[in-house]
Amino acid sequence: MTHPAATHPATRFRDVVIIGGGCYGTFYASQLQTARARGKASYRRIFLVDHDPGCKAARELRPDPARELVVAEWDPFLAAFLEQAPPAAQEPDDAIVPSPLMPHLMADWLLATARARWPARAVELRPVAQPLGTPYDRLAADGTRYVSFADWICPTHCVEPLTCPVIRGPRTWEMSDALVRYRERLARSSRVEGPALFVTRHRAFGVGMFDVAEARAARGLLEAAAAGPPPADLLVATVSSCHGAISLLHLGEK
Questions:
Q1: Which of 7, 113, 183, 218 is the most buried (most CB within 10 A)?
Q2: Residues 6+ apart with CB under 8 A from 164
Q3: What angle do CA 209, 213, 217 make, to 5 degrees?
Q4: What does each C-alpha distance from 16 to 21, 51, 58, 103, 147 come to in angstroms?
Q5: Which structural domain, as residue segments, surrounds residue 143?
Q6: CB 96 within 8 A of CB 209
Q7: Number of domains in the chain
Q8: Omega before 86 within 30 of 0, i.e. cis
Q9: How far is the first Cα of the chain from the last one, in angstroms, to the nearest whole number?
Q10: What pLDDT tens digit does each residue of the chain (254 aa) get?
Q11: How far apart are CA 127 and CA 113, in angstroms?
Q12: If we measure between CA atoms, which residue out of 173, 191, 183 comes closest to residue 236?
């Protein structure tokens, strides 16, 4: 089992996107600003994205020249942001800070990417019918499957350490590993590629995020899935060590 959270990932970023300007986004922006002031993180700019110009972050955060409130819907903002050129060699990558309450935006982004790339193909998100088998495992009305290894209420802003603060014992699970095995199980009955994983790790002062490199890798998996014989499904998941949202992107006939 892998425990990437224990490898102390770099806290250098190019730009950081925070999804949502509510209570979570306000907390994340404040924590990153503190980390930067204390020399524990570096970044060029924070983009805090919310459709409401009067959101909590706009009302409560002190002005910061390295932070911009972007008044926009999440989907179109991400579509433009993720089309940027990758960083140059030795330059840190951009990162995205998801909100626990957001829809499965990365699956929606891959869906829009596939439809634009192959307009003549049948492309859709399909319900993830087969349970993963974690203690919490629920299929939402939109077909997204929400899963968790916790059958308890986790502490707010838990950083998912190797010793779980609720059971006071070792965290013996890792959602990324579980999704790899899950894809293998699904692939026994149909062509399922992936998984395209967006893995949130706690990088600085309790702020979890994933690098935009994972979006580029997911786009590569999408291209590979589309290049093979149809139909094909791409397993897409945004996860942390303990929790996750799972979607199935279906690519129909060419």
A1: 218
A2: 170, 171
A3: 120
A4: 14, 18, 17, 19, 26
A5: 4-251
A6: yes
A7: 1
A8: no
A9: 38
A10: 444 443 344 589 999 999 999 999 999 999 999 999 999 999 999 999 999 999 999 999 999 999 999 999 999 999 999 999 999 988 999 999 999 889 999 999 999 999 999 999 999 999 999 999 999 999 999 999 999 999 999 988 889 999 999 999 999 999 999 999 999 999 999 999 999 999 999 999 999 999 999 999 999 999 999 999 999 999 999 999 999 999 999 999 87
A11: 19
A12: 183
Instruction: Please compute Rg for the chain using Cα positions.
Output: 18
CB 109 within 8 A of CB 29: no
What's the full length of the chain, in residues? 254
Show the tokens assigned to 152. 């308890």
28, 58 in Cβ contact below 8 A?
A: no
**Structure-token pair, residue 224:** 């590979």
